[in-house]
Design a protein that fits this description.
Layout lengths: L4 H4 L3 H17 L7 E4 L6 E3 L3 H6 L19 H11 L5 E3 L1 H8 L5 E5 L3 H10 L6 E4 L3 H4 L11 E5 L8 H15 L4 E7 L3 H12 L6 E7 L13 E7 L5 H16 L7 E5 L2
Parallel strand pairs: 1-4, 1-6, 4-5, 6-7
Antiparallel strand pairs: 2-3, 7-9, 8-9, 8-10
Helix pairs in contact: 2-4, 2-5, 2-10, 8-9
């Protein structure tokens, strides 16, 4: 199964992942000090929801499409900001993590978006061309990350969101965040993972927990939809957050109460859990 961003743009997992990223960025912006965002597997930056890859899975229809019409009056700040970022792209497109982050940077902040596939790196440069503080690096995110840490700002968030094309991808993520943490222990790390196998997901979370990374928060969403291998549909996914900001878990719980009824099956809401392993 291929988890490249284009296939799953705007699906339920993207909604949770990008909401968490926005919440972290809003926390970082509460202080005037600059920060750095590093996206190790940035993808193309923006995605056509009517394109061949997205329509092949049709996942956006059960994800962001169900949220676009939500009113902003009583939404948590992070959820309202996330939806504003999406709406600014127009109805047929969905922003990737790097483009969302770029929109939220201040003049003193910085984004490093890494993508190893040349075609996607070219698209990423186009997607970020209008953002002065965004740098695109064509490289392997796992290999390049250590050289970028610690960032000169000494504040920041690192998103590790690979396509999970390799059988040992879980091990790569666990090793990458452990090495990064040794260089930048105060950074905030967002580690996305698909739940293809409950056993594999539990083993991954347990492995990260044993690496001495703390505090650690686990966010998981299960839509109740069975995994469809033929159409590459995904039914459950999670996010491990290392060094979550103060109050972040409560913010995600509040947003989950709004999102769950919209992201689940037609007859039942999704199950969104926010726990500390």
């Amino acid at each position: 199964m291929n988890y490249r961003h284009a296939f799953h743009a705007g699906n339920f997992a993207d909604v949770i992942k990008h909401l968490a990223l926005v919440a972290v960025l809003l926390h970082l912006k509460r202080k005037e000090k600059p920060f750095c965002v590093i996206d190790t597997h940035a993808g193309a930056g923006i995605y056509d929801l009517n394109g061949a890859d997205a329509t092949r899975t049709g996942e956006a229809g059960a994800g962001i499409a169900r949220l676009r019409a939500a009113g902003d009056a009583h939404l948590p700040a992070a959820l309202g900001t996330f939806l504003d970022c999406v709406r600014r792209e127009g109805g047929g497109h969905y922003p990737g993590s790097s483009r969302i982050a770029a929109r939220l940077l201040r003049s003193q902040d910085r984004l490093v978006a890494i993508e190893k596939y040349p075609h996607e790196a070219t698209a990423l440069r186009t997607a970020l061309a209008g953002f002065r503080n965004a740098l695109v690096v064509e490289a392997d995110g796992y290999e390049r990350l250590p050289a970028l840490l610690p960032p000169s700002e000494r504040r920041g968030v690192i998103l590790i969101d690979p396509p999970f094309e390799e059988e040992n991808e879980f091990a790569h993520v666990a090793d990458a965040v452990a090495r990064a943490y040794r260089r930048f222990a105060t950074g905030i790390y967002l580690l996305w993972y698909p739940v293809k196998s409950r056993t594999a997901a539990e083993a991954f979370c347990g492995e990260v927990s044993t690496r001495g990374l703390a505090p650690l928060l686990r966010i998981e969403i299960d839509t109740g939809r069975a995994r469809d291998t033929e159409r590459q549909r995904l039914g459950a996914a999670g996010l491990l957050v290392v060094n979550p900001p103060y109050g972040f878990d409560g913010e995600m719980q509040d947003a989950a109460a709004i999102l769950a009824p919209r992201l689940g099956r037609a007859v039942a809401p999704a199950i969104i859990t926010v726990t500390r392993p």
